[in-house]
Design the sequence.
């Protein structure tokens, strides 16, 4: 149907070097390393976003379609903090998730809390509607073209096989730290144990004198905060515009489903892993790089419906 | 023959309405419909700004001439969906008695409106859409393509860059019809001028992360990376190119479709040095500045894009033709009149409209200023070259337009 | 049934007052939403990829009406890809629509066979994944014209003799198609087959234990739903004389959920009402720009929070409750059941 993937032709420099002998299907190995690393960096965003979704789904059974809008709000909050209050990136990294998290708490109290007794479907539809409202309001106020946000750590280092901007390195390290810390809190601490218990038997946990509704509200706020954090991380490298989240949301959904809905570690590993796979697709068949995740999702759902890291119910 | 018919129709109409002077106009009203993206990707570069420009053109025309006292503007959002646009335009023509549709960014919607305008014999003035097919194999006697097209952009940018030494290219192309057209047109220009294309990568639309594609472009060692995409894709690619040190590494970016709103979104620090072709810049002369000042006051302080300026210019010329004819009922006749009259307005100066519906004017090659060169907000461009009107657009005989014999 | 006859009469007279092109669009989406409702409302399966049938059928119908000739790729070992070219002349509208519908049914059979093995949210995700692949196919395939779509699709005389170039004439064709599609859905729901579907929705395990081949029932329902969604899409392509990428996007799959939700899931007329409301809003609020999005979102939120049964569903419930109340007062028993 099509004449094979459009590969880049290596420049003259590569042809002269003996390494060209080891080209892997037309791609020199150094370039491949570069692409793998870039995939890992993109995976950091997927991991952070899908982690938030997984926390919300795992502990509340709500499919949060507003997640993309909340990611966008995170990026916008960073921009607003800088332009209106002069608070730089590093401040925004702490403040923006708190601001957007509070917004999440408000939403949970006002709307989502009314739907816990119903099918998942309603939570999904409600949050979809909320996402539309938020996106519409931001478009109304800031237009669509996007806003500039300066890179806080410009420059980078040459790794030999590629140029690594400092900022991307920071994104990977920081996001990995946040992901692992979240996993640790939920799976290994007493607070996490309460949380997990509260999802299984809210009545029982309530009877132990723990305020379950408040705990759930805070959980939602935390998940939303993670989305906002990803938004702040994205602001310096991606265009800050009102639709930045809606383009990403279904991909992140796919990541969560592949990892196993509600599985914390699953969403982290899958996030990074799929970033890498997507990165490789960008080299071998770039047109399909948006679709490859869905192909994987279909296959995984057929072979292992609970997801790669989920436990069958 | 046609003039006789029109005169006869006008006379008949006069008789029927017992001497009313409005009767030559269908429904007694000249009605313009501005249809564009009011909420999506292209809403900043067209949107309400285009509506304002159309109204401004009417106001200016009526100040300078004795005008028909009922000229109305309606507008709608086609949401970049061809079926929505098609529905609105049919309803405008059939029910609301709209005489001319203006602007219409997004090629797929513009092509749909192009077909309907011909079928219903109305007027279609394109400013926002880029598809050069509108004056090529899809040209109609009812459509005029006003501001720019993919051929003009590719030609202006491609030629100028190859001539100044940028003779090896790598394309980053959005994987849809419009991106392919831009890439195809630019590649032809590059090759014709002695340059070569080292490679290309087609990215899905929309894409967020371009680092992988940029790395492939970097590895190609091409001197120029051509961005055959639009909107957020272009700004994202430019933003990330700066981050990955593409420009400081000796390669240059060429934006094939960049609007001033995109540059504004990027900020000068990121966009500096970018080279591209546009039809109009607000800070080029006093007339433009005066127009821009009024525009800004009415549009959140934004400066007009070439699309919005094009809407002004197109509407003004349309009104001139309609008043000359004293009739707006026969779309093809109005367009024929518009083609016969030389164009002249304060924003685009003197120009003309070709047989195939292509409006001809100078195009400009701009370079984005360095932050220290900019004297204030929206002071973004310096002019690298002026591409004279006769060279700026695709030669008449190369477009395969059936109207050209 | 009397309600239906009344509505047909109303539909026949409507173009006297309302613009026929707009009405045709409403009918197409009403059929699409009704087809979708057959799955969600009567089998309890939420498909989040129904746009693939709607949009792909539109492309097929558009291609058949404009070009005709079909080229199918097939792979041979060692020889690579070959093209199987079937020469067909450009078709009349009814054959083009039929072609689109058949292809949608076939696609429905393939997708359905895969998707019905999963339930609930996983079913939704499988359909979403497959729809994204169809979307990718539509972007890449030559015949779809990429982002520009298939433009200027000719509307030849019906059956080769009846001229339907005029929008008003074609409206009655569309009305007939809608009625036919709607009757199929109505018959499906009210047949023994439909009763089994409802049983599956209520309690799948029970249906299995009663000896029903649940998967087969689900699959048949899925194929009917896909075919009718395709019928709607193919008809829409002939109405607007264009087929484009918007109809295959996941946002379109979301829109049909919205229509069905607003009108009333699991009610016969609900989805059609919902479609009419949403299309009306998109058309007549088009001047409000960004606010359309906000209003649409607000409708979602209000629908989920306040009237979950949709407009028609709430209406029916209201009427039933009133009838029940009247009965209750007659018998002077104050033990009215709670509304939900």
Sequence:
């Amino acid at each position: 149907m099509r004449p094979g993937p459009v590969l880049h032709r290596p420049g003259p420099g590569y042809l002269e070097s003996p390494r060209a002998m080891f080209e892997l299907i037309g791609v020199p190995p150094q370039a491949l390393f570069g692409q793998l690393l870039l995939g890992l960096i993109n995976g950091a965003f997927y991991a952070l976003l899908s982690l938030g979704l997984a926390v919300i789904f795992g502990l509340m059974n709500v499919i949060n379609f507003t997640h993309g809008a909340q990611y966008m709000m995170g990026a916008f909050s960073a921009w607003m903090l800088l332009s209106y209050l002069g608070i730089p990136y590093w401040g925004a990294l702490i403040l923006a998730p708190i601001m957007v998290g509070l917004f999440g708490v408000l939403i949970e109290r006002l709307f989502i809390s009314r739907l816990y007794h119903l099918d998942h479907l309603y939570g999904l539809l409600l949050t979809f509607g909320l996402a539309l409202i938020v996106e519409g309001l931001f478009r109304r106020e800031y237009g669509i073209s996007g806003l500039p946000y300066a890179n806080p750590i410009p420059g980078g280092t040459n790794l030999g096989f590629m140029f690594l901007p400092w900022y991307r390195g920071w994104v990977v390290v920081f996001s990995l730290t946040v992901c692992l810390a979240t996993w640790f809190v939920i799976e290994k601490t007493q607070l996490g144990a309460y949380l997990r218990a509260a999802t299984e038997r809210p009545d029982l946990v309530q009877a132990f004198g723990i305020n379950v509704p408040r705990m759930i509200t805070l959980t939602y706020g935390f998940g939303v905060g993670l989305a906002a954090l990803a938004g702040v991380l994205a602001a310096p490298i991606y265009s800050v515009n009102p639709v930045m989240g809606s383009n990403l949301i279904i991909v992140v959904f796919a990541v969560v489903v592949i990892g196993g809905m509600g599985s914390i570690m699953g969403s982290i590993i899958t996030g990074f892993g799929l970033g890498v796979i997507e990165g490789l697709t960008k080299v071998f068949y770039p047109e399909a790089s948006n679709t490859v995740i869905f192909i994987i999702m279909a296959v995984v759902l057929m072979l292992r419906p609970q997801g790669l890291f989920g436990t069958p119910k | 023959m046609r003039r006789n018919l029109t005169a006869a129709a006008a006379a008949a109409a006069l008789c029927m309405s017992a001497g009313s002077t409005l009767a030559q106009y269908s429904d007694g009203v000249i009605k313009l419909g501005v249809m564009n993206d009011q909420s999506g990707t292209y809403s900043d570069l067209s949107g309400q700004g285009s509506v304002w420009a159309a109204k401004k053109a009417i106001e200016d025309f009526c100040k300078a001439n004795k005008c028909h006292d009922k000229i109305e503007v309606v507008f709608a959002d086609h949401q970049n969906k061809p079926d929505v646009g098609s529905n609105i335009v049919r309803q405008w023509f059939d029910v609301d008695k709209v005489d001319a549709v203006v602007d219409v960014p997004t090629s797929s919607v513009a092509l749909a409106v192009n077909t309907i305008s011909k079928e219903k014999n109305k007027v279609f003035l394109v400013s926002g859409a880029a598809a050069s097919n509108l004056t090529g194999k899809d040209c109609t006697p009812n459509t005029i393509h006003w501001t720019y097209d993919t051929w003009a952009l590719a030609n202006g940018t491609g030629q100028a860059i190859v001539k100044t030494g940028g003779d090896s290219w790598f394309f980053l192309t959005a994987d849809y019809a419009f991106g392919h057209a831009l890439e195809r047109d630019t590649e032809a220009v590059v090759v014709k001028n002695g340059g070569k294309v080292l490679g290309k990568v087609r990215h899905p639309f929309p894409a967020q992360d371009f680092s992988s594609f940029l790395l492939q472009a970097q590895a190609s060692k091409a001197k120029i990376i051509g961005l055959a995409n639009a909107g957020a894709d272009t700004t994202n690619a430019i933003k990330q190119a700066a981050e990955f040190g593409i420009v400081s590494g000796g390669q240059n970016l060429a934006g094939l479709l960049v609007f001033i709103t995109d540059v504004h979104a990027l900020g000068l620090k990121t966009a500096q040095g970018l080279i591209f072709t546009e039809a109009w810049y607000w800070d080029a002369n006093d007339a433009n500045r005066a127009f821009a000042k009024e525009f800004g006051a009415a549009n959140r302080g934004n400066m007009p894009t070439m699309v919005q300026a094009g809407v002004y210019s197109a509407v003004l010329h349309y009104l001139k033709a309609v008043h000359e004819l004293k009739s707006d009922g026969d779309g093809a006749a109005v367009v024929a009149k518009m083609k016969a009259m030389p164009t002249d307005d304060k924003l685009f100066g003197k120009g003309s409209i070709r047989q195939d519906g292509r409006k001809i004017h100078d195009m400009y090659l701009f370079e984005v200023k360095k932050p220290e060169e900019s004297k204030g907000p929206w002071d973004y461009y310096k002019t690298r070259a002026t591409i004279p009107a006769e060279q700026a657009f695709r030669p008449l005989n190369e477009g395969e337009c059936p109207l050209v014999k | 049934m009397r309600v239906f006859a009344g509505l047909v009469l109303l539909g026949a007279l409507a173009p006297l007052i309302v613009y026929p092109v707009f009405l045709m669009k409403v009918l197409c989406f009403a059929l699409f939403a009704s087809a979708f409702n057959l799955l969600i409302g009567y089998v309890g399966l939420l498909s989040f990829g129904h746009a693939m049938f709607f949009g792909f059928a539109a492309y097929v119908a558009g291609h058949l009406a404009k070009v005709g000739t079909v080229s199918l790729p097939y792979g041979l070992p060692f020889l690579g890809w070959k093209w199987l070219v079937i020469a067909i002349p450009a078709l009349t509208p009814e054959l083009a629509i039929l072609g689109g519908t058949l292809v949608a049914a076939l696609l429905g059979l393939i997708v359905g066979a895969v998707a019905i093995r999963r339930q609930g949210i996983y079913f939704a995700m499988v359909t979403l994944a497959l729809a994204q692949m169809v979307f990718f196919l539509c972007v890449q395939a030559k015949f779809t014209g990429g982002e520009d779509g298939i433009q200027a699709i000719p509307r030849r005389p019906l059956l080769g003799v009846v001229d339907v170039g005029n929008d008003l004439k074609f409206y009655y064709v569309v009305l007939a198609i809608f009625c036919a599609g709607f009757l199929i859905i109505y018959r499906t729901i009210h047949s023994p087959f439909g009763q089994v579907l409802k049983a599956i929705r209520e309690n799948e395990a029970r249906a299995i234990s009663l000896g029903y081949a649940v998967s087969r029932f689900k699959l048949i329902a899925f194929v009917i739903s896909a075919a009718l969604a395709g019928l709607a899409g193919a008809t829409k392509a002939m109405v607007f004389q264009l087929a484009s990428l918007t109809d295959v996007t996941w946002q379109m799959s979301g829109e049909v959920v919205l229509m069905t939700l607003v009108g009333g899931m699991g009610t016969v007329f609900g989805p059609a009402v919902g479609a009419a409301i949403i299309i009306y809003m998109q058309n007549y609020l088009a001047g409000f720009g960004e606010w359309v999005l906000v209003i649409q979102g607000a409708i979602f939120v209000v629908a989920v929070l306040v009237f979950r049964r949709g407009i028609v569903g709430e209406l029916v419930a209201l009427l039933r409750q009133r009838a029940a109340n009247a009965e209750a007062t007659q018998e002077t028993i104050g033990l009215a059941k709670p509304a939900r």
